[in-house]
Write a structure and sequence with these properties.
The chain is an alpha+beta fold and about 210 residues long. The chain has helices spanning about 15-20, 25-30, 40-50, 60-80, 135-145, 170-190, 200-210; strands spanning about 5, 85, 90, 100, 105, 110-120, 150-160, 160-170. The N and C termini lie far apart (about 50 Å).
Length: about 210
C-alpha cells in the first residue's frame, strides 16, 4: 500500500513541481522507458536535477487536458456506475521511495484508479478496439506499482466528441521492469548527476532546441 509523500490540498503549482522532483512519476516512467512522444529520458533527468527549462502550462493541449479532467471523470462515473474520488496527495511506493504517483482519481470501494485523458481527433487510431497508447499503459502500470492496486481504468475524450473508457489489468512483469529501469535511472543518473544519453527522439530534439535556441 502506498504511503502519502505530500498532501497537495494547499500546495501551489510551484510547490507541487518542486515535490515532484523528489522521485519518478507516471509520465516520467514512460519517458524513461523511451515510450513518451513528448518527453525524453534526458528531459526527466534535467527536471529532477533542477536544470530543465521552465515547465509551462500554456500549451493549449495541456490547458484543456487539465480543464476537462473533471468532465471526463464525471462522464466515466455516469457510464460505468463506479464512484470516483480525488486523492489530494502525492503517493509514494512503500519500498522504492523514488517511485511517486500523482493520480487523477481512485475508484471508491475497489483497489483501482482512473486516469483521465483528452486526445485530438487525429490520434483516434491509437485508441481503436482494445488499444491504449503505450505511454499511458506504462503510466497506469506505474500507478499500480506504487499503490499496489489490481487495475486502472483509463477514460479519454477524443476530439471533444467521442468518449471511451478501458480497463488495464495489473501486469507483474511490466511492473518489475519499471522498478528496474526507474531504480537504475534514479540511482545511476539522477543521484550521481550523470545525464543519460540524448536519444535522437523528437522529444529529445525539441528539448535540445529549447535548451540551446542558437
Amino acid at each position: 500500500m502506498a504511503v502519502v509523500f505530500a498532501n497537495t490540498n494547499e500546495m501551489s503549482h510551484e510547490e507541487w513541481l518542486s515535490a515532484r522532483r523528489n522521485g519518478i512519476g507516471g509520465s516520467d516512467a514512460s519517458a524513461i522507458a523511451g515510450l513518451n512522444k513528448w518527453k525524453s529520458p534526458i528531459a526527466v533527468y534535467l527536471e529532477k536535477t533542477g536544470q530543465a527549462p521552465e515547465e509551462s502550462m500554456n500549451s493549449e493541449a495541456a490547458y484543456w487536458g487539465t480543464m476537462l479532467e473533471d468532465v471526463v471523470a464525471q462522464e466515466f462515473s455516469k457510464r460505468t456506475g463506479l464512484k470516483v474520488r480525488r486523492k489530494n496527495a502525492i503517493l509514494q511506493h512503500p519500498e522504492h521511495s523514488f517511485m511517486l504517483a500523482n493520480v487523477d482519481r481512485l475508484i471508491v470501494g475497489e483497489k483501482a484508479g482512473l486516469e483521465c485523458k483528452t486526445a485530438s481527433e487525429h490520434l483516434k487510431n491509437e485508441w481503436k478496439d482494445d488499444e491504449v497508447p503505450a505511454q499511458y499503459l506504462i503510466q497506469c502500470q506505474h500507478y499500480m506499482a506504487v499503490t499496489g492496486y489490481d487495475a486502472w481504468w483509463i477514460a479519454v475524450l477524443i476530439g471533444g466528441n467521442k468518449f471511451l473508457y478501458k480497463k488495464i489489468e495489473r501486469d507483474e512483469e511490466i511492473i518489475q521492469y519499471l522498478i528496474e529501469i526507474e531504480s537504475n535511472f534514479w540511482n545511476n543518473h539522477v543521484l550521481k548527476k550523470n545525464p543519460p544519453m540524448f536519444d535522437g527522439s523528437d522529444a529529445s530534439s525539441d528539448l535540445l532546441k529549447a535548451l540551446y535556441p542558437t
